[in-house]
Design brief:
heterodimer, A: 453 residues, alpha/beta, Rossmann fold, Ubiquitin-like (UB roll), de novo design (two linked rop proteins), 3 domains, four-stranded parallel β-sheet, 17 helices, 13 strands, B: 190 residues, alpha+beta, Arc Repressor Mutant, subunit A, Glutaredoxin, four-stranded mixed β-sheet, 8 helices, globular, disordered C terminus, binds flavin mononucleotide, binds iron/sulfur cluster, binds FE2/S2 (inorganic) cluster
Chain lengths: 453, 190
C-alpha cells in the first residue's frame, strides 16, 4: 500500500509560496471568517462542537479538549482566563514555531474563538523567550487584529471583549508545565502547583478558572468550527481525531515537520518513506517517539497486546501507528509529537547522558526526589561516558529513577525518570559493556567522534 | 538607576496589560535587561519598587531563569543548542569550533567583552540542527565545514552579509504592504 500523503490543515498555508504572516494575507485566505461565525453562535454550542470533535490536546498529555473545557468552574463567578501554551520546550518539538512565525493569525483566530466559547475575560500567550522574533510577530499580529476589531474590545461588534497579551518566558523548560507556567505568568518562580487542588480549570491564574491549551490545539478549534465537530471527528481514527504535526529529528536523511491524519501512517513509513530513511550505510538503532520525555523504543523490539477497541496487535517498532494510542500501546507515548531517530553509530549511554543533563538542568528543584535524583542521574551517566563506568551503574541509575517516578509534584518527575528507566532496560548490555571501555579520546586525530555529552 | 525614556514608556505600557501588577515582573525584567545587559542589585530594587513588591520577589525570579543575567554577556552572544537532536547532528563539535574561533569557552565572556557563548537546551528547531542563535537570529544546520565558516563570519562581524547563512527569521516571507481596505474593495467589485 502506498504511504499516505500529508494532510495539511493547520499548516495549509504556512509554507505556501507567497503566503506571509500579515493580516491582509490572512484575510485573503478566508481568515477570521470562523471568528465571524463564532460570535454569532452561542458559546456553549461551540464548546459542544469541540467536545464532539474528540480533539485531544497537542501539548503532550493528549487530554480531550472539549472535556477540559467542561471542567471549567463556572459557578464561582470568578473571571475565566485562556492561556495559550507557546513554550514549545519539549526536546525534539518544533511545530508551534512554524505556526507562530508563519501563520500567527490562525493562532489568534483560534484563540479568539476559544476565548469566546469559554467566555474568557482575558487571554495570554506564554511564549518561550528564545522566540525573540516570534513574540514580535505575535505582538504585531494582535495589533493588526485589534485595529480591525478582531480582538480586544467589542469583537466584531458582538459586545464580547477579550484582549490577548503576549508574555515571554526566560529559558526555563518547566514553564511548559501548565501550573509552572501559571506561576511564571503571575510573576513568580515557576514552581509547579500540586493537583489537586490546583487544577487550572478550577484554580488557575490568580486563583481563577483557567484553560491552558497548546498552540496547535487552539488552531484546531478554528477548523472544528469550520468543519463541524462531527466531520472533524471523522478525520483520523476513533479516539485519535484530526491531524497531527509530527516533528522528526536526529539521524534521518530528511528531518522536518509533517502534518498527517492521525493513524494515517506508521512510524516506519515516517522514517523510511517520508524522511528518506537513515543516512547511507546506517541502520536504525532506537527511536524516541514523543519528545525526550517519552520512553525509548529499541529497533528490534516487539510489542503485543490488545488495543482499547479489542483488536489484538503484534508490532515491530516500524509498525507502530502514528496517533495518540499507538505509541502508548507500545509502552511509550506520542507526547508532543517529537520523533527522535538514532542510528547504529550512536553510543546509547551517551544519548541517555545527554538527556539526563537536560533534566538535571531543568528541574525546578521543589521536590527532593526530582532535584537530587536528576542531578545524580546526570552525574552517574556523565561519569560513565568519561571512562569511569562500573558494572553496577545501570542498576544504580534505575534505582534513582524509580525513586523519582510517582513521588513528585508535577509530571516532570516521570519525564526525567522514563528515559533512564527505558534506556537501561532496553540496552542493558551496552551499559554493562561501558565498564570495560576506555575513556574516549577527544583529541584524537581523524574524523572527530560524535560526542553527545 | 537611569533608564531611557523609551524603556520607561514600554515598562508602563507592559504593566498596564496585566490584571495584577506582579504579573509584569518577567516582562519588566526583560525590558531592563535589554537596555542594561543584565539585572544588577540596583535594578532588582528599582523593579521591586516599580511593581510594589519586595526586592526578594524580584531576586528569586532573576536567579531562577537561565536567560536572566546578573552579569552581561559579550557584545555578540552566541547560543548553541546542546540537547540530543542537535547533538546527534554534531552540536558538541560546533560548540567547540565556535569556542576555538571566538577564543572563549562556553558559559564565559571573552576578555575584550566582544563575544560570549552559551551551550543551551533545546531551542525548538531540532529538525535542522545544530541550531545556533546569534544575538536574536536563529541559524540552522551549523555543522562541519560550514560551522568553521560560520564561526569566522561571527568573529568578523560579517555573518549578516554572508548569503550562505540565512537565518530562520530572515527566511520568512516578507509581510505585504497592501492594506486590508483596498483588498476588500477589490472583492466587492467582483
Ligand atoms: C515538564 C512538562 C513540560 C511541558 N511542556 C509543554 C510545552 O512546552 N508546551 C505545551 O503545549 N505543553 C507542555 N506541557 C503540557 C502542559 O502541562 C499542558 O498539559 C498543555 O499545555 C495542555 O494543552 P493541551 O491540552 O492543548 O495539550 C508540559 C508538561 C510537562 C509536565
Ligand atoms: S517534579 Fe521536579 S520539576 Fe516538577 S515540581 Fe517537582 S522538582 Fe519541580
Ligand atoms: S535539540 Fe536543538 S533545537 Fe531542539
Amino acid at each position: 500500500m502506498a504511504v499516505a500523503k500529508e494532510k495539511r490543515i493547520i499548516l495549509k498555508y504556512a509554507d505556501a509560496k507567497g503566503y506571509s504572516n500579515d493580516l491582509p494575507c490572512y484575510l485573503e485566505h478566508g481568515g477570521y471568517d470562523m471568528l465571524k461565525k463564532a460570535v454569532k453562535s452561542k458559546p456553549e454550542d461551540i464548546c459542544e462542537e469541540v467536545l464532539k470533535s474528540g480533539v485531544r490536546g497537542r501539548g503532550g498529555a493528549g487530554f480531550p479538549t472539549g472535556m477540559k473545557w467542561k471542567f471549567l468552574d463556572r459557578k464561582s463567578g470568578k473571571p475565566i482566563y485562556l492561556i495559550c501554551n507557546a513554550d514549545e520546550s519539549e526536546p525534539g518539538t518544533f511545530k508551534d514555531r512554524q505556526i507562530i512565525y508563519k501563520d500567527p493569525h490562525q493562532l489568534i483566530e483560534g484563540m479568539m474563538i476559544s476565548a469566546y466559547a469559554i467566555q474568557a475575560k482575558q487571554a495570554f500567550i506564554y511564549i518561550r523567550a528564545e522566540f525573540f522574533e516570534g513574540a514580535r510577530i505575535l505582538d504585531r499580529a494582535i495589533a493588526e487584529a485589534k485595529a480591525k476589531k478582531l480582538c480586544g474590545d467589542n469583537v466584531l461588534g458582538s459586545g464580547y471583549s477579550c484582549d490577548i497579551v503576549v508574555h515571554r518566558g526566560a529559558g526555563a523548560y518547566i514553564c511548559g508545565e501548565e501550573t509552572g507556567l501559571i506561576e511564571s505568568l503571575e510573576g513568580k518562580r515557576p514552581n509547579p502547583r500540586i493537583k489537586p487542588p490546583y487544577f487550572p480549570a478550577v484554580l488557575g491564574v490568580y486563583q481563577c478558572p483557567t484553560i491552558v491549551n497548546n498552540v496547535e490545539t487552539l488552531c484546531n478549534v478554528k477548523h472544528i468550527l469550520e468543519m463541524g465537530g462531527d466531520a472533524f471527528s471523522k478525520l483520523g481514527i476513533p479516539n485519535n481525531t484530526g491531524t497531527r504535526i509530527w516533528c522528526v529529528s536526529g539521524q534521518v536523511q530528511n528531518p522536518g515537520y509533517f502534518e498527517f491524519e492521525c493513524g494515517a501512517l506508521t512510524l516506519g513509513e515516517m522514517i523510511y518513506d517520508v524522511c528518506g530513511g537513515l543516512n547511507p550505510g546506517r541502520s536504525l538503532k532506537a527511536v524516541i517517539p514523543g519528545g525526550s520525555s517519552a520512553k525509548v523504543l529499541r529497533s528490534d523490539e516487539r510489542f503485543t497486546g490488545t488495543l482499547k477497541d479489542g483488536t489484538e496487535f503484534d508490532w515491530g517498532v516500524t509498525d507502530i501507528p502514528l496517533d495518540f494510542d499507538g505509541p502508548m500501546a507500545a509502552g511509550s507515548m506520542s507526547g508532543s509529537g517529537g520523533i527522535i531517530v538514532m542510528d547504529d553509530s550512536v553510543d546509547i549511554v551517551e544519548a541517555m547522558a545527554n538527556i539526563n543533563a537536560f533534566y538535571a538542568h531543568e528541574s525546578c528543584g521543589q521536590c527532593t526526589p526530582c532535584r537530587e535524583g536528576s542531578l545524580w542521574m546526570r552525574k552517574i551517566s556523565t561519569r560513565m561516558c568519561s571512562g569511569g563506568a562500573r558494572e553496577e551503574d545501570p542498576d544504580l541509575l534505575v534505582s534513582v529513577a524509580n525513586q523519582i517516578e510517582g513521588r513528585t509534584i508535577c509530571a516532570f518527575g516521570e519525564a526525567a525518570a522514563w528515559p533512564t528507566q527505558s534506556f537501561v532496560a532496553k540496552f542493558k548490555d551496552e551499559f554493562i559493556a561501558k565498564a570495560n571501555q576506555p575513556a574516549p579520546d577527544d583529541d584524537a586525530e581523524g574524523p572527530a567522534r560524535l560526542r553527545l555529552i | 538607576m537611569e533608564l531611557s525614556k523609551d524603556t520607561l514608556t514600554k515598562i508602563d505600557e507592559v504593566i498596564g496589560r496585566y490584571p495584577e501588577k506582579r504579573s509584569a515582573t518577567l516582562m519588566v525584567i526583560h525590558l531592563v535587561q535589554d537596555e542594561q545587559g543584565c539585572i544588577t542589585d540596583e535594578a532588582v530594587e528599582w523593579i521591586a519598587e516599580k511593581l510594589e513588591l519586595q526586592p526578594v520577589n524580584i531576586y528569586e525570579v532573576v536567579t531562577f531563569y537561565p536567560m536572566i543575567r546578573r552579569e552581561p554577556w559579550g557584545k555578540t552572544h552566541v547560543r548553541v543548542c546542546r540537547t540530543l537532536p542537535c547533538a546527534l547532528r554534531g552540536s558538541y563539535k560546533t560548540c567547540r569550533t565556535l569556542e576555538e574561533k571566538l577564543g572563549v569557552k562556553e558559559g564565559h565572556v571573552s576578555e575584550d567583552g566582544e563575544f560570549s557563548i552559551e551551550f543551551m537546551e533545546c531551542l525548538a528547531d531540532c529538525g535542522k540542527g545544530p541550531v545556533v542563535i546569534v544575538d536574536e537570529k536563529t541559524y540552522e544546520d551549523v555543522q562541519g565545514e560550514a560551522a568553521e565558516k560560520f564561526a569566522e563570519q561571527v568573529k568578523n562581524g560579517t555573518l549578516a552579509k554572508d548569503r550562505n547563512f540565512t537565518s530562520y527569521e530572515d527566511g520568512l516571507a516578507k509581510p505585504r504592504k497592501k492594506t486590508v481596505a483596498s483588498k476588500k474593495k477589490g472583492a466587492r467589485r467582483k
